[in-house]
Amino acid sequence: MSGRSSAVTEPVALAGDEAVVVRDLHRSFGGREVLRGIDLTIGRGQFVALLGRSGSGKSTILRALAGLDDGVQGELLVPERRAVVFQDPRLLPWADVIANVVLGQRGRDARARGLEALGEVGLDGHERDWPKTLSGGEAQRVALARALVRKPDLLLLDEPFGALDALTRIRMHALVAKLCARHHPAVLLVTHDVDEAILLADRVLVLTDGRISLDTPVAQDLDRGDPRFAELRSVLLAEIGVVESIDDGPVDDEPPSDAYRSAPAPVEAVPSALGAVSFVSASIVPSATSKEHQR
Amino acid sequence: MSLHQDTTFVARLSGPDPTPPSPAGSGPGLVRLPTGAADTGAARRRRLPRGTARLGGILLFFGLWEIAALVGWLKPQDLAAPSVIFTTGIDMLRSGALESAIWVSLQRVLWGLVIGVPVGLALALAAGLTRTGENLIDGNVQMLRFVPVIGLESLFILWLGVGETAKVSLIVLGVTFPVYINVFTAIRSMDPGLHELADVVGLSRSERIRRIVLPGVLPAFFMGLRIAVAVAWLILVFVEQINASNGLGYLIIQAQTFFESSVIVVALVTYALMGLVSEGLVRLAERRVLRWQPGR
Predict the structure, then answer these.
(1) Which residues lie across from A158 on neighbouring strands?
(2) A14 inside 8 A of chain B by CB
């Protein structure tokens, strides 16, 4: 506990616009090195998607940024106000919806802010419901409201749509895009869904064998019909290694184009990532949110 | 009727299909599924309602018992007829003998629960929430719980005499274990995701206990409480028959001396009813407290 707090909660003055600064982050589990030197900077208000195969260490990074893992080594600077949405909603079943939203929130206006957050996720009138009476999508929206009510500077999304059905997932994408555009937190979205990453994020990272192997900005206004969408999609799929696993499939036979590849050594990829940070406020936002996001 | 349905069934299977079912041996064979059974709803209506049917079985049991007593297969000193037991019960109620015995026995159980349940709960929380508590308590409890509580009766009489204290103490001891085991196990097997959540939303230690741990172990607590209530009655029956000068068990011992089998049965039925009622009360409380659980 004390080791974690010294690393994470100590206030550090940062010069620039960073919401997250990670330097040389390592993590081993039982001798197996899962993170092998992660360097990552996320700008304020930037929406970053982190892709990777299962077991690549995506969630390990997210848990480290959430302050849930004091076994990591390296430097870790994060905002004080952070919120996490997990893959499962993690609602307390014995507390009604509003109590779940304001869990841990103090102050007289907590309830009012909780109701406002519930309204933002479209769950007006559900504040007295028991979590077990909610559908999966509703429960996840409550979890989103619980994150929003904290007014986070860093929002950590750990495959939050992974357990939802396809239609609900599409609706949740739009909702998350809208809310992030309105509140403008820095976001780290851990996902294995390449389309989701392209649609939502300003910048996509691919984690391979414990290192960031690809760090690319996502152009504005990319929708599924755009040829650049397809191109980026196949680049990302190739980077994740989908080609290797489906060798007889028609997917992504062309090698990834170098335009998207960061420098060969992952550590050197970070300066380019930093470049992307300052770049992002100028042009790189997901299509769904482009208008509000800019203002 | 059934023939008609059969033909439509076959027609539906083979009609629109351009290739009729091939004769056996030349391809995958078809089997004819049974059809044309009577409408199950109508059949159910013709049968007796389930409750009535079950009651019939019980009435048959008592009827045979009554007949066996009437004919003389059952001797009254072995087992009285249901009608005799019933009138005995009424008489005991009228004289107040049953009521006072019930009250005495009920007090023993209630004291046992009132002391034992909080003790079990407090021990479980102390052991579940602190390392020191676990080191001091859990090993000892796990060791002691294999000692048969009823076997401690003699020691308790040695220490505390034959009065109420020894009886209540034995019930307290018996009640403590199920509450402790259930609550302690629940604390230790709580969803680690909820503890992560508590970390993420920044709950203090006391908030974590109040908002997450305590409500989280309530279902297990009620499970332990139900077992505790059953155990309390069981130990009561035992201690009251070892030595007692009043209570339901005393009635049984006395009746045994005077070959009054009907009184014994009345006392046993009373035990059963009180066990049933107390179990029902616990379930009622559980349903109210755990109303967030689906299906309650």
Answers:
(1) A190
(2) no
Distance of CA A244 to the CA centre of its chain: 26
Of A105, A83, A59, A75, residue with least CA distance to A8: A75
| Identity of the amino acid at B167 | K
Which segments of B130-247 does DSSP mark as H helices, in order? 131-133, 139-144, 153-160, 164-188, 192-200, 205-208, 214-242
Structure tokens at B194: 């909820």
User: What are the extents of the domains in chain B?
Assistant: 90-289
Q: Is B210 on the interface with A (CB under 8 A)?
A: no
Classify residue B283 by burial, with Cβ atoms within 10 Å: 0-12, 13-18, 19+: middle
Asked if pLDDT for residue B7 goes beyond 80, the answer is no
Q: pLDDT per residue over B40-89, tens digit each?
A: 665 556 677 788 888 999 999 999 999 999 999 998 888 999 999 999 99
Domain A91-151 classification at class level: mainly alpha
ipTM metric: 0.74
**CATH (residue range A44-67+157-294):** 3.40.50
Question: What is the Cα–Cα distance from A51 to A207, expressed in whole angstroms?
Answer: 6
Q: Which residues of B fall within a CB distance of 8 Å from A67?
A: 199-200
Structure confidence at residue B237 as a pLDDT band (50, 70, 90): very high
Give the integer Cα–Cα distance in Å for B210 and A132: 20
Q: Using a CB-CB distance cutoff of 8 angstroms, which residues of chain A are in contact with residue B218? A: 94
Chain B environment of A105 (Cβ under 8 Å): 201
* Cβ distance of A103 and B197 shorter than 8 Å: yes
Domain residue spans in chain A?
44-67+157-294, 91-151
Structure tokens at A2: 């004390």
Residue B207: list chain A partners with CB under 8 A. 104
For position A286, what pLDDT does the model report? 38
Chain B contact for A90, CB < 8 A? yes
For domain B90-289, the question of CATH label 1.10.10.410 is answered with no
What digits encode the pLDDT tens for the residues A55-102?
A: 888 899 999 999 999 899 999 999 999 999 999 999 999 999 999 999
Chain B interface, best mutation among A94, A101, A105, A144, by max B CB count within 10 A: A94
Query: Any chain B CB within 8 A of the CB of A92?
Result: yes
A144 in Cβ contact with A100 (< 8 Å): no
